[in-house]
Structures are given as C-alpha cells and as structure tokens.
Amino acid sequence: LRSKLSPTFTSGKMKFMFPTVVQVANELVKAFAQIVEKNSKVEIRDIVSRYTTDVIGSCAFGLECNSLSDAQAKFHVMSKRALLENHLGNFGVAFRFSFPKLAMRLRMRDTVHEIEDFFMGIVKATVKYREENQVKRNDFMNLLLELKNNKVMKSDTGEDFTNLSLKEIAAQAFIFLVAGSDTSSTTMSFALYELALNEDIQEKARREVERVLELHNQEFSYECMSELKYLEQVIQETLRLYCPLPALNRVALEDYVVPGHPNFVIKKDMPVIIPAISIHRDEKYFPNPEKFNPENFSAEQVALRDSVLYLPFGEGPRNCIGSRFGKMQILIGLALLLKNFKFSVCEDTLIPMKYDKENFMVTPDGNLYLKATKV
Fold first, then answer.
1. Once rounded to an integer, what is the mean pLDDT over residues 174-180?
2. The predicted structure's pLDDT at residue 7
3. In this predicted structure, what is the pLDDT of residue 170?
4. 258 DSSP 8-state letter
5. Residue 153 main-chain phi, psi, to 5 deg
6. CA torsion sign, 362 to 365 to 366 to 367?
7. Exposed (0-12), middle (13-18) or buried (19+): which is 121, by Cβ within 10 Å?
8. 202 Ramachandran zone, left/alpha/beta (phi>0; psi -120 to 50)
9. Per the annotation, where are the binding residues for heme?
10. Which residues sit opposite 364 in a β-bridge?
11. How many CB atoms lie within 10 A of CB 251?
C-alpha cells in the first residue's frame, strides 16, 4: 500500500494541494485576529490544532470542516477523540508497538467503533458525491480517487501505480489525519514558543517572510516556500529539539554486526529502537544541544553532518511519506502568522517547558499560552 501512496506525495502533488492549504492558513490568520482583538493572551495549541484539522479535513476528506470558526465543529471534536481516545488504553498501544504481528492475530484494534464509523461514513459519502457529480478538487482525496478509478500515477522513481479500494481510501485518509494533524500542530506550537522566547530569531524570520512576499507582490505562491530558507531552518531546529516521535521502531532485515564490536550482532527479525531525540540532543552532533539555534541547519552545518543524525521523519525506505505535506502546512501557517502577529511570553507561559509524561509523542503538559499582538 505504501508503494501505491508514494506517488501522491511527490513535489508535483504538493503543488497541486498548495492552494487548498493557503486558503485554510488565511482562515487561521482571521481566526487568530479575532482572538487577539479580545485578549492578547492566546492558547496556542488549540488554535493551531484547529488549523491542521481543517487542512487535513479539506485535503484528505474533501470537507469544509470550519474548525477555525467553530471550536465545537463535529469533525474537529471527532478528530480530537480519534487522537485521545483509545480502545485498548496505553498498555494496549505499547503491546501493539512491541508485538505487532501477535496483535494482528489477536485482532487488537485501537480505534473506538463510533469514531471509525464516523470517518468511514464521511469517506463513503464524499466518494459517492464526487463520482456521481464528477467533482474534482486540489486535494489528497482527489488523488486517492484517481488511484481507485485505475488512473496510472507515477512515483518519484518513475514507477506506475493504480487500483485502490474504498476501504484503503478510508484507511489512508484516517491515517493522514492521525499522523499529520497532531504532529504538525504540536511542531507549530513549539516553534511559536521558541520564537516567543527568542525574539531576535523571530524578527529575522519575519523580515524574511516580508521580503519574500514583497518579491511576489504580497501573494503567497508555491515558489515562496523554497525562498523561505531561514523559516525552514526554524522548523528543522524545532523538530530537532522537540522531535514528535522520540524513538523509531524498526526490524532488522538481516544479521548485522555492529562495526568495531564483533560480539554485538543484531539478529534478523530483531526489533530495533532508535532513540531519535537522544541523537538530536547529543552534544557530539549538535553543540550546546539544549539551545534553540536555527543555524544548526544552515547549508554549511548540514553538509558537515551525516543525514542519519536528524530523524524527525525517520530515514531510508521506511521514512514518513507525508513529511513533505507536513512541512508544507507548518511552513505556510507559520509564515502567515509571523507576517501578521508578533509573539512574546506572558505570565502563564511554560518556562521551562514541561512535557506530558503520559503521551507517546513529545507534547507540552497542558495549555501553552503566549502573548500575541498585531504587527
């Protein structure tokens, strides 16, 4: 299935979905402005989670979710439940990660039936409506429908793929939501937090956004993204310091002798846990690793490091296929927020950062408040 979906995340397909993301990001700016007019103290996690929910709802499910205008919108509420409620509890999740094959044989499932039925119903209705009315949109759902209807799609390597079932469409749209919503919104929250703590970095990023938009007549075009190099460094540094998944689970494909240690052999089929966040915070690879420093990702510094020392999306053939989309929605959201608002800490800002110890992901413990004022 991964091979079928890889073509939907090529750079060409990202350009296809770009206008949809920008449209939602403009709604984020409007919603943010309404909040700031009433109170300069903003709970960041909630508003950016509604942004990523609307982006993925629009791109993956083909819906106008309206989470930014209504915090109690049904899609947003069910999305939060999908991320927070678990049929098995934390022990069950740990069991599935540790023994995936056994969990499949035991037919263990995470998702609550009501949540699964809700999203399956949305996909069925969307597919039916689009096929009957020949509707096309610049979104992920449209690309999935093309695969379902036997349209040949090429991957980055030139391979041809086709055929996708309705169940596979529903499953992939749901995975898109679960994997892409919370990770992206949390990264945006941490980025804004660090920019509020480091106002010199924030100002440098804002000046870059203003300069790039001026070159493009104040229109945020697809070409703008490649020119926002410093903001890209800000995002990369955020992902280094606050890697969403602190560890990666892999399985050895063959026996592997650890170089320089012949007595240590990773046997074929042995589970391997890669401590990504520990690598990211190792001073051997990143000087002064606890300090937020976007210069860690300047072209010169990146060239000095092995690529496997930076693993927010994994590495190799099993890396996150949605990383391009995730980075795109984060970059667009941050760029438009920085263009319109200045961020600083307030009396309720978490300093130092505290983490939710019950979450498998790296997330703040509780709300994340910042002061925001119009530029």
1. 85
2. 65
3. 87
4. P
5. -125, 140
6. negative
7. exposed
8. alpha
9. 320
10. 355
11. 13
Coil/strand/helix, residue 43 = strand
Residue 300 domain-assigned (yes or no): no
Predicted confidence (pLDDT) per residue in 35-65, tens digit: 999 999 999 999 999 999 999 999 888 888 9
- List, in order, residues 6 or more apart from 346 with CB less than 8 Å away: 40, 41, 369, 370, 371
Is residue 290 a part of any domain in this protein?
A: no
Residues spanned by the domain of 192: 2-244+308-374
Cite the annotated binding site by residue number: 320
Helix (H) / strand (E) containing 248: strand 248-251
Cα separation, 330 vs 59, in Å, equals 15
What ranges in 256-371 are assigned the alpha helix state H?
276-280, 299-304, 323-340
> Measuring CA to CA, which residue among 132, 73, 1, 147 is closest to residue 124?
132
Residue 219 located in a structural domain: yes
Domains: count for the chain: 1
**pLDDT higher than threshold 70 for residue 364:** yes
Let me know if residue 250 belongs to a domain: no
